[in-house]
Amino acid sequence: MSSPVLSTIRLSAGYRTRKGDNVLFRDLNLSLYPGELICLMGPNGSGKSTLIRTLAGLQKPLSGTINRQAGLQHQSGNSIPFSVSVVLTDRISSANLTVAELIAFGRYPYVDWRLRMTEEDRAIVEASLRDLNLEPLRDRKIYELSDGQMQMAMIARALAQDTRLMLLDEPTAHLDLNNRVEIMALLKEIAYKSRKAILVATHELDLALQSTDRIWLTGHNKDVIVGVPEDLVLNGAFDDIFRFKGFDLKSGKVQHKAYRDTVVSVHGDGPLYLWTRNALERNGYVVATESAHIDVFAVSESTWRIRRGEQEQVVSSVGEMLQVLQSFGESSRKIV
Fold it and tell me: Which SS3 state, helix, strand or coil, does residue 229 take?
């Protein structure tokens, strides 16, 4: 395995106050490797943003060591700008900048005292615009952007900085599902293709489980539990930390409480079966694995057959299926 882009040795992070140190994390030994997308997860108030800022060099650690690999051509007394790029939740105050101008700020650690960019700098800015699909917005003012577009521009700025390590704090906060999926998929692609190590603090559990290589999970004892997503699901680490209420992480489903006596058996396969069953459970029906008083056959995306004794009805949507079942009332009871 290649050497880590970032590693910590007995790192403690938190805040210093007049009354003493407020320790949020203690004795962390963590590593980030090239090509990895890692999600930092944990309950609200567990210190994710503090850890991100500490790893980025924006906040001093309480104790311990942080090792960062600087760019090969940029070893200096303060190599942080050349080793790590950061996307925080802070809003940009210079809203009159264009998207291209904002992204160009990522090259500032490399320019001379006259702040003149070279052809290489401009080429990197153009590449960042292209990689983030922001070329149509290059001359758009920052204040004209949607939240999703703004996040893309901030990631493009970090990409233009051309570091081996990217740290992002809640990059998908307040975005719609489409933008959240797009950003996580983009970060995964950047990590893989550019061999960057990317750490994302996020609450997006569903997306993290499907896209990240490893997860750093904040523990109960001011530590961080490290593992691949599937292991943390199967060994109960997520359940222990988040204390899910009414949600079964292993199946990925909300646990619905049946409030009807009607027992329904569902027949079918694939997405049709899953979403038909979901609709029934969501509406309070008892779903059986074997034949019951009522059988529902998910035949196709436009055909559901409902059988009750000798009676059978065919409907063309899940909504119509639910209406038919409701029309049966409570006459179908579970036999004990």
Answer: helix
Q: Which residues contact 77 (CB under 8 A, 6 or more apart)?
A: none
What is the tens place of the pLDDT at every residue in 41-57? Answer: 998 888 999 999 999 99
Contacts of 163 (CB under 8 A, 6+ apart): 71, 82, 83, 84, 85, 196
Residues 145 and 291 in one domain: no
Cα end-to-end distance, the chain, whole Å:
59
Give the pairing of strands 247-248 and 31-32: unpaired
Closest of 81, 96, 221, 101 to residue 165, by C-alpha = 81
CA 96 to chain centre: 30
CB atoms within 10 A of CB 291: 11
Domain at 95, CATH number: 3.40.50.300
Residue 247 backbone phi and psi in degrees, to 5:
-135, 125
| Domain hosting residue 24, numbered range | 6-248
Write the burial class of residue 217 (CB in 10 Å: 0-12 exposed, 13-18 middle, 19+ buried): buried
What is the reported pLDDT for 44?
86
- Which residue from 53, 334, 20 is spatially nearest to 167, judged by alpha carbons? 53
Last residue of a domain, one of 223, 248, 273: 248
Is the pLDDT score of 25 beyond 60? Answer: yes
